[in-house]
Amino acid sequence: MRFVPITLKHSAAKVDRRSAVRSMLLIFAAVVIAVTGMVFTALDRVGHYANQLDEERSRESVSGALQTFQRQLAATLHDYAAWDDAADHVYRSSGLVWAKRNFGAMTDNNELFDVAIIVDHTGRIVLGYSEGEPVTGSLEDYITPEVWSLLDKIRSAREGVLPEETSFTRTSRGAAAFGVALIRMKSGQLVAPQGEGRYVIFMRHLTEATVDRLANAYVLPGLRIEQPLEQKSHRVLILSPAGKPIASLRWEPRSPGNISLAQVRPLVWCAVAMVAIYFVLLFVSGSQALARLSADEEAAIKLSLTDRLSGLPNRTGLFADLSELVGTAQRSGLDVALLYLDLDGFKEVNDAYGHATGDQLIRAVSAGLAVLVGEGAVLARLGGDEFAIGFLSKNAEADAAALAERVMEFLGEPLTMGDRIAVIGCSIGIACSPLGAVAGEEVLRRADMAMYRAKEEGRGRWSAYDPAMDAEREERNRLELDLRQAIEREEISVAFQPVVDAQHMRLSGVEALARWTRQGHGPVPPDVFIPIAESTGLIDQLGLCVLRTACEALRDWPELTLAVNVSPGQFRDPAFAERVALVFQETEMDPARITLEMTETYFIQNPARARDTLNRLKKTGVHIALDDFGAGFSSVGYLRQFGFDRMKIDRSLVAAADLGGRAVDMLQATVALARSLDIPVTAEGVETNAQAVALRIAGCDQLQGFLFGKPMPIAEIARLRQREEPLFRLSGLA
After folding, report:
1. What is the Cα–Cα distance from 646 to 250, expressed in whole angstroms?
2. What is the pLDDT of residue 8?
C-alpha cells in the first residue's frame, strides 16, 4: 500500500510593514516610559520598606535590651533574696554587719546592681547602700512611689506566689531597673512569721556607661537615654509599673534604604540611557525587527496548530490539513481517506499508573503511528486518547481498511514505558471523501461516528461510515428528546410483574418495570429507551419517576413487597439516597417494603463509593438486592462486603435447570451459598413447572417469571391479590 505524497502549506496573513514598524515603536516607547516610572517607584518603595524594617528591628533590639537588663536584675535579686545565709543573718540584730558586707559593700563597682536597701515589713529601712557607700541623704530618693507599690504587692502576696517583682523607676540619679523581694530560705521556707518579714530592694541605674554597653552589644549606634517624650520613631519609652513614662532610649537611624537608593540610582539612570540608545537603534533597524516578528508569528501559528505533548498536529491543525487534502484531491482526482482512532485502554493506564505514565503512553503511540503511516499521510492527535490519520489514495476504502488492520495489530502489542508495560487496543472509524467531494469537517464527523459504532460493537475493531448511521443518530436524538418530554409530562407508566412465595405459590410482592408509549409511535421496548436514559443522564429522573409511581400504587397494600431496579447511573448521584428517602416521605410508603435491585457493575468499579451509598440507603430502612447473580463476576466477597438483603438468581441459571445434571448442581450450590450467608433468594425468569420445582427444592423463597404472570397493569395485580387460591400449582413434588 502506497500513499500519494502530499505537501501541506499554511498561509500567513500579509502585514503592512510601515504601519507595523510605527505601531511597534510607539508601543515600545510607551513601555520604556512606563517601565522606567515603575522601576523608580519600586526603588523608592524598596528603600522606604528597608528603612521601615531597620526601624522595626532597632525597636525590637532596644526593647529586648531593656527586657534583658530587667531580667538580669531579677536573676540577681532572686539569688540574694532566696539565700540561706541571708535568711539566717538579716532577721537578727547581730547580723547587720554581715548584711553590710554582703549587700551594702557589693554595690561598689558592681555591674549587676548599684543600690541595695533592706526594709522590714512596716517599711522601716534597716540598711541602705549606694555604690558601696551608706546612703547619707534621704532614702526617699530611692524608695519612690513605684518601689512602694511593688513592696505593698509583695507584702500582701498570698502563700505560694513568688515574692519577687521587678520594674523601672526614676530616682535622683536617673532611670533605673529595680526589684523587691522577700528574704527567705533557698527552699522558699519563710524565716519570720507573717507580718515580720524583711525585704531587699536592688536597683541598677541606666547610666551612660551602661547604655553604651547596650549599644555595643545590640549594634545600636547613637543609643542614649533621654527624658520621656511621646512615642516617636527611633525611640522606645521606659515605663513604670503603672505604665507611666519615666525615660526613653533613643538611637540614630541608619536608613539603609536611603543608602541603597543612593548607590542604585546612578545605575538605573545608566540603564535608562542604554534603553534609550537601544530604542534609537531599534528605530533604525525596524525593518529587520519586522522580519523577525513575521517569523515569530509564523512560528506561533505553527505552535497553535501543534499538540505539545505528542508534537503532532492538534484538532485545529488537522482541520487545516484536511482542507489542504480535500483541495489537492479535487485538483488531482484522488480520494481522501480518514481514520479516527480511540485508544480502548488508555483510561485504565491513567488510573493504574498515573498521568505521567499516561503521557508517556501517548508519546509512545504517537511515535509508533508516525513510523507506521510514514511521510505520505497526515497524523494528528485530537486530544485525550484520540488520533486521526488522513491521506490521499486512488483506492481510499481498501487502503484505509488495510491501514486500520495494521494500526490495530500495532496497538494490540504490549507497549513499554520505562519499567512499565501496558496492553491497549483501539477502535477505528473510517470515512472517505471521493475526489474531495466531502468537506474536511464532514469527513471527520463521519469518521467519528463510525468510530463510536466500532466501540458499540465491542471495541478492538474498525467500522466504516455508512449513511444509515446518520439516520440512526437522528432517530436516537429524537428518542432522547421525546423521552425527556415524556418524563417531564409524567407519561412513563409502570408495569408490575408478580413475585410469588415459593412455598405456597401465592402473591407476595411485585417488581416495578418502566414502560413508555411514545406519542405517535407506540410502545418503545425498555431495552431501547433505558440505555438512552443511562447514556444521556435521564436515568436519575426516570428511576425516581418509576419509584414514585410504584409507591403510590402499592401504598395501601401493606402485605405486598415492591422491587425496583436501580441503574449504576443513579447510584453515581451523591444525593441518590436522600432523593429516595424523599420519595418515601412524600408517598407515605414504608421503606421496609421496598427492595432496590442493582447489578454488580457499579460495585466492581467503585467499591468504596458504593459501600458509602449503600450505608446511607440502608439508614432509610430500604432493602438492597444483588440482581443477576451468576451472570457476571459476583463472588462471595461481594455478598459479604456489601451486606445485601436479598439475592436474585440470573435467568441463565434458571433456564439451565431444565438440563438437569451439573446445571441443577450449580443452581443448588448457588442457593446454598446465599442461604449459608443468611441471604434470601429470588429466582427470576421462571417459565416452566420443572424450573419452579427445581428452584423450590434448591431453597429459593421467592419465584418470578412468565409462569406466574407477565408484567401487567396495577388493576391486574389488584385482581390477583384478591384470589384465594395459589397463582400456580406445582406438579411433580414428592
Report:
1. 86
2. 47
Residue 200 exposure: Cα atoms within 13 Å on the Cβ side: 28
Report the CATH number that the domain containing residue 378 is assigned in CATH.
Answer: 3.30.70.270
pLDDT band for 302, please (50, 70, 90 cuts). low
Last residue of a domain, one of 229, 250, 271: 250
Give me the pLDDT at residue 12, please. 39
Which of 183, 186, 148 has its CA nearest to residue 167?
148
Helix, strand, coil: what percent of the chain each, to 5?
50, 20, 30
Range in 23-27, 198-202, 208-212, 694-698 the model is least confident about: 23-27
Q: CA–CA distance from 210 to each of 65, 130, 224, 250, 525 (Å)?
A: 11, 16, 10, 14, 101
Look at residues 339, 376, 381 and name the one whose alpha carbon lies nearest to residue 364.
381
Q: Which three cell numbers stand for residue 717?
A: 395485580
Report how far residue 521's alpha carbon sits from residue 258's, in angstroms, rounded to the nearest whole number. 88
Cell numbers found for residue 602:
457499579
User: Are residue 515 and residue 579 in the same domain, yes or no?
Assistant: yes
Residue 73: all three cell numbers together: 536584675
Is residue 119 within 8 A of residue 125, CB to CB? The reply is yes
319 lies in some domain: yes
Q: Is 152 helix (H, G, I), strand (E, B) or coil?
A: helix
- Alpha carbon 426 to its chain centroid, in Å, reads 32
Tell me the CA distances in angstroms from 724 to 335, 477, 658, 662, 708, one per residue in order: 75, 48, 30, 37, 15
Averaged pLDDT, 559-566: 93
d(CA 182, CA 167): 16
Distances in Å between the Cα of 528 and the Cα atoms of 96, 330, 568 are 113, 42, 17
pLDDT tens string 390-445: 999 888 889 999 999 999 999 888 887 777 788 888 999 999 999 889 988 999 99
Hey, is 220 helix, strand or coil?
coil
The residues, ordered by sequence, that sit 6+ positions from 464 with a Cβ below 8 Å of its Cβ are 397, 400, 401, 429, 430, 431, 450
Q: Are 178 and 147 in contact (CB under 8 A)?
A: yes
pLDDT value, residue 673: 86
Q: Are residues 460 and 503 in the same domain?
A: no
Mean pLDDT of 619-634: 80
| DSSP H/E element including 721 | helix 714-721
* Mean pLDDT on 468-472: 83
441 vs 428: CA distance, rounded Å? 17
Q: 680 in helix, strand or coil? A: coil
CB 138 within 8 A of CB 172: no
210, 462, 463, 477, 538 from 456: Cα distances, Å: 92, 11, 10, 16, 20
Regarding whether 321 and 214 lie in a shared domain, the answer is: no
Contact between 343 and 445 under an 8 Å Cβ cutoff? The reply is: no
Q: Under 8 Å CB-to-CB from 161, ≥6 apart: which residues?
A: none
Give CA–CA dist 352/27, Å, rounded. 51
Domain that holds residue 384: 305-465
CB neighbour list of residue 6: distance below 8 Å, 6 or more residues apart: 324, 325, 328, 376, 377, 378, 391, 392
Q: Are 587 and 619 in contact (CB under 8 A)?
A: no
As a whole number of angstroms, the distance between CA 695 and CA 214 comes to 99
Give tens-digit pLDDT for 84-118: 888 888 888 788 889 888 898 888 888 889 899 99
